[in-house]
Amino acid sequence: MSIAIVTDSTAYLPAAELDAHAIQVVPLHVIVGGTEFSEGVDITTAEVAAALRAFKPVSTSRPSPQSFLDAYEKAAASGADGIVSVHISADMSSTIESAHLAAQRSPVPVTVVDSRSLGMAMGFAVLSAAELAEQGGSLEDVAAQASSRAEASTVVFYVDTLEHLRRGGRIGSASAFLGSALAIKPILGLVDGQIRPLEKVRTSSRALARLEELAMSAVDKAGSAVDIAVHHLDSQSRADSLAARLADRLDGLPDGGAVRVVELGAVVGAHVGPGTIAVAVCPRPNP
């Protein structure tokens, strides 16, 4: 079988990698001041960050089922016998509901995978699925590859303020931090597809140091080579500095790995706000 891969725009994969593996991306939507935009198409992360700083109303919405059906039909027309469609956690977005609805009308079989994650934790899983598909993997094996790599990933992050998460309704049990939000810098994690509170620290420098230690703890637990992505929103220099420190520490390990810096896109950025730094640690699958 020829298996095609579809994902959504919150994977934040570079265009070159999408093109290299013929991965189709269905964009989520961002609404700024009443005007709707497609993530990665007609709005930039910088524009969303500026809107948030200016206290303009910013919200997000899922793609339509038709958008997914268009992608599935395109894959089938290009010769795909089956499709693996990998998406943002169902607890963070209803995107996957649109994918399921479209899958029912697809001209070829579609397996929809809830990554229970987002960003490059999902992106690395998508890449592994695409690589296995290119090696002739079955629909079931390719879907399992995506699911297992996403599940093995660790995501920790720091936000300058919890206000954007609160407004978007994505805060979950991290709302326990709200009472002292002005006095702390919260460290949060993505656990089983939901945002959970991890720690409270007093300064942004301490928060970044804790992200580094939590990331390296995840590397130690992996027991194999890892891929790491340092995400940020409007905080390039801090992200670069953290990535450099992590890369230095990986160089001293037998298995090692790779670190990249990836800016968060408009959709996730709308919920976490400017100044956010996140780290995704993704163990590589066994050869």
TrEMBL record:
Q: According to its UniProt record, what is one Pfam family this protein matches?
A: DegV
| Protein keywords | Lipid-binding
Q: Which domain of life is it from?
A: Bacteria
Looking up PROSITE patterns in the UniProt record yields: DEGV
Instruction: Look up keyword Acetylation and say if it applies.
Output: no
Q: Output one GO MF annotation.
A: lipid binding
The record's InterPro entries line, in alphabetical order, gives: DegV (IPR003797), DegV_C (IPR043168), DegV_domain_contain (IPR050270)
Q: Which residues cross the membrane?
A: none
**Gene3D superfamilies in alphabetical order:** 3.30.1180.10, 3.40.50.10170
Classification via PANTHER family: DEGV DOMAIN-CONTAINING PROTEIN DR_1986-RELATED, FATTY ACID-BINDING PROTEIN TM_1468
This chain's protein is named DegV family protein with EDD domain
- The organism encoding this protein is Pedococcus badiiscoriae
